[in-house]
């Protein structure tokens, strides 16, 4: 498995690390299952009162699902449903209402937004970049954009999704638009996120979890019906797998960071 969990009993903070740096912390099917198990397990660990999720290696927080793993997922024939192995990789999808902070260094793209979208806030190193390559490769960005639309102005999320791999949002721009709540020197995101989590973990946990649940209820009203449309949008809009593979094999356009 490539998920590492460290718990500090004194502070009440746990750190969940995607630990596959050679693959930019891309998520395999086994990792997806383990993430769900980790989040569900935290519901029973009263000593864990706040959590930080991050990626190892410094080059990437996460680059979404491992493409080879995605090819192993059979899909139903109906255009109104898909089997998405990333649907339950986030804390809220697993009924966890303890606060989660995302600490981002390097690239965060595509399926990484399932995790970022279910974190309470994001701390990023100044070298972090955010982008969504789906459209470049003939894939609909539905689940990802729905998650991120709760965190970014419409024009920003639309631009990121539609520009695909041609453009990356810098950590500074992400901070300016509200996606990132704290910007740190490169390599400092994890320490800053742990410091914030330690403060939160020191507050009465019932009040903290109730606040998380209240905040999440604001987004549920719009998120739930939007997510209901996502499966058939993906099924109808995605190019066939062989055509996607052809596009993946091409040298893409040079990207710029803004």
TrEMBL record:
Gene3D superfamilies, A to Z: 2-enoyl-CoA Hydratase, Chain A, domain 1
Pfam families for this protein: ECH_1
Highest taxon of source: Bacteria
InterPro entries from the UniProt entry: ClpP/crotonase-like_dom_sf, Enoyl-CoA_hydra/iso
Protein name: Enoyl-CoA hydratase/isomerase family protein
């Amino acid at each position: 498995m490539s998920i590492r969990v460290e718990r500090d009993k004194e502070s009440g903070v746990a750190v969940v690390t995607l630990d596959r740096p050679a693959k930019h912390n891309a998520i395999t099917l086994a990792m997806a299952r383990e993430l769900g198990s980790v989040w569900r397990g935290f519901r029973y660990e009263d000593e864990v009162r706040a959590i930080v999720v991050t990626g190892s290696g410094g080059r990437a927080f996460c680059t979404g699902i491992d493409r080879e793993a995605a090819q192993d997922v059979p899909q139903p024939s109906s255009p109104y449903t898909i089997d998405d192995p990333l649907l339950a990789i986030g804390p809220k999808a697993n009924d966890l209402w303890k606060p989660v902070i995302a600490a981002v260094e390097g690239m965060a793209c595509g399926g990484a937004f399932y995790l970022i979208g279910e974190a309470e806030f994001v701390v990023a190193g100044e070298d972090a970049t955010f982008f969504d390559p789906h459209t470049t490769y003939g894939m609909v960005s539905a689940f990802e954009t729905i998650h991120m639309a709760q965190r970014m102005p419409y024009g920003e999320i639309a631009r990121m999704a539609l520009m695909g791999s041609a453009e990356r949002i810098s950590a500074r721009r992400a901070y300016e638009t509200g996606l990132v709540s704290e910007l740190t020197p490169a390599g400092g995101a994890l320490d800053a996120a742990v410091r914030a989590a330690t403060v939160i973990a020191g507050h009465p946990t019932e009040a903290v979890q109730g606040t998380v649940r209240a905040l999440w209820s604001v987004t549920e009203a719009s998120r739930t019906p939007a997510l209901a449309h996502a499966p058939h949008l993906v099924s109808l809009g995605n190019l066939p797998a062989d055509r996607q593979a052809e596009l993946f094999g091409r040298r893409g356009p040079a990207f710029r960071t803004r």
